[in-house]
Design brief:
Length: about 425
């Protein structure tokens, strides 16, 4: 069958890599893709948010299944559009994707269905938010309600930081329209993990747990980013914790969405804090995480295309995804200055020279001419290593990174450090 993957990052490269291994898949198109993906699939010069052009392409090429990577087209309603034209597409509807598109909606939803999360207040008025901040207990998290590319949550240690953050988000609009409404919530204490799950709206199948590293600096210092690396599986999510995640979070979420006329099909991403009293939801995403996908998919032994088809057709109950033993580590290489001002167009060397076994380079923002590779964004490459355990995978990943170079290249040197606590 012919598959169209929508997106251009490391997550999409990992999806293409996994789908290409399926005997069900004859051809993969990617819109718009990147330099690395171009070696595995046919690139289509259509942006991920150009829904009309995407649906026209899918009709013209008789695409059998479209797989959506990023959140923006999902929140814009790409699934609704494709289904209205009789096209099969993997992902949640526009109404279901609101769990990521609006943090305010997600928090109110969790309150309605008694899903454990941080206590919170929602504000549409800057002055009311400032008045609350002057009397609140600290620390707090202040979050833009809308989509902010993973960078919209800011920690405030005191009232001055909180008021400045509120001004920046709601007055200076540093996150654009995403900051018209904000969520102010308590700062949860514990270890942050990710559990992604396959669901067709009835059956829920959790994947292996993983841990993203959001902060730009070692030791989780500095501003939030789109993700500096990940490892899988986590030690803290044992069978008991996973049972709690399923029963207290995943099941009530899927069933609550069904009850509200928002049947949820696709990937449900739960960003969690494992607290002393159990798991609590930090955020939902309506799609595969990035870079968690690059760490999780290499351990999946089942046919991903088969799983996607079962979900689209509502038959996930007949599939039992299988996972290999071992562990993975993904280390993200970024342009200098990320997540703020960056320079692109830097020549990359060493991509063809690494010799480690079971190491994959997932391209996130690269451009390729006939002979050379160049940087083309903030997060450039994800170096993912698979090995028997976390220490071995870390060694393989960092050994590979020693051979890769570009001007200003930056990466965290402590990915996976919480696995050793």
């Amino acid at each position: 069958m012919k598959i169209l993957v929508v997106g251009s990052g490391g997550r999409e490269h990992a999806l293409v890599w996994k789908l290409k291994s399926s005997p069900l898949v004859d051809k993969v198109y990617v819109a718009p893709g990147n330099g690395g993906i171009s070696l595995m699939a046919e690139m289509v010069n259509i942006k991920a948010d150009n829904l009309e052009a995407l649906v026209h392409f899918a009709e013209e090429k008789h695409i059998d299944l479209t797989v959506v990577g990023p959140e923006l087209p999902l929140t814009l309603g790409i699934v609704d559009l494709f289904e209205s034209r009789g096209l099969r597409i993997f992902g949640p509807s526009k109404k279901a994707a609101e769990v990521e598109g609006s943090k305010a909606f997600a928090k109110e939803f969790m309150r309605r269905y008694h899903i454990p999360t941080a206590s919170f207040r929602i504000f549409d008025d800057k002055n009311q938010a400032l008045a609350f901040a002057r009397t609140a207990a600290y620390p707090l998290y202040i979050k833009a309600s809308g989509l902010a590319a993973g960078k919209g949550a800011i920690n405030a240690a005191n009232v001055d930081e909180a008021c400045d953050t509120i001004e920046q988000i709601m007055e200076n609009m540093i996150f654009g329209e995403a900051g018209k409404s904000i969520v102010i919530e308590e700062c949860l204490v514990g270890q942050e993990v990710t559990v992604m799950a396959f669901t067709d709206g009835k059956t829920i199948v959790p994947m292996l747990s993983s841990q993203d590293h959001k902060k730009v600096g070692d030791g989780d210092q500095g501003p939030n980013t789109g993700g500096m690396g990940a490892y899988c599986p986590t030690r803290i999510v044992d069978d008991q914790v996973m049972t709690a995640v399923r029963e207290q979070i995943l099941e009530p979420t899927v069933y609550g969405m069904e009850k509200e006329g928002r049947k949820y099909k696709g990937i449900l991403y739960a960003g969690l804090m494992i607290t002393p009293v159990g798991p609590k939801v930090i955020e939902y995403n309506c799609r595969f995480g990035d870079p968690e996908t690059q760490a999780v998919l290499p351990l999946l032994t089942s046919d991903l295309a088969d799983i996607f088809i079962a979900i689209v057709d509502g038959n996930l109950n007949i599939i039992e995804p299988a996972w290999k033993e071992g562990a993975t580590v993904c280390v993200v290489l970024t342009s200098g200055g990320y997540p703020d001002k960056i320079e692109i167009g830097k020549k990359i060397s060493g991509i063809r020279t690494y010799r480690e076994n079971h190491v994959y380079l997932f391209h996130a923002a690269t451009r390729r001419d006939d002979t050379n590779w160049y940087t083309n964004g903030g997060r450039v490459l994800g170096v993912t290593a698979v090995n028997k355990d976390i220490p071995s995978a870390l060694k393989s990943a960092y050994n590979t990174i020693e051979n890769i170079h570009f001007e200003g290249m930056y990466y965290r040197r402590d990915i996976g450090y919480q696995a050793f606590k």
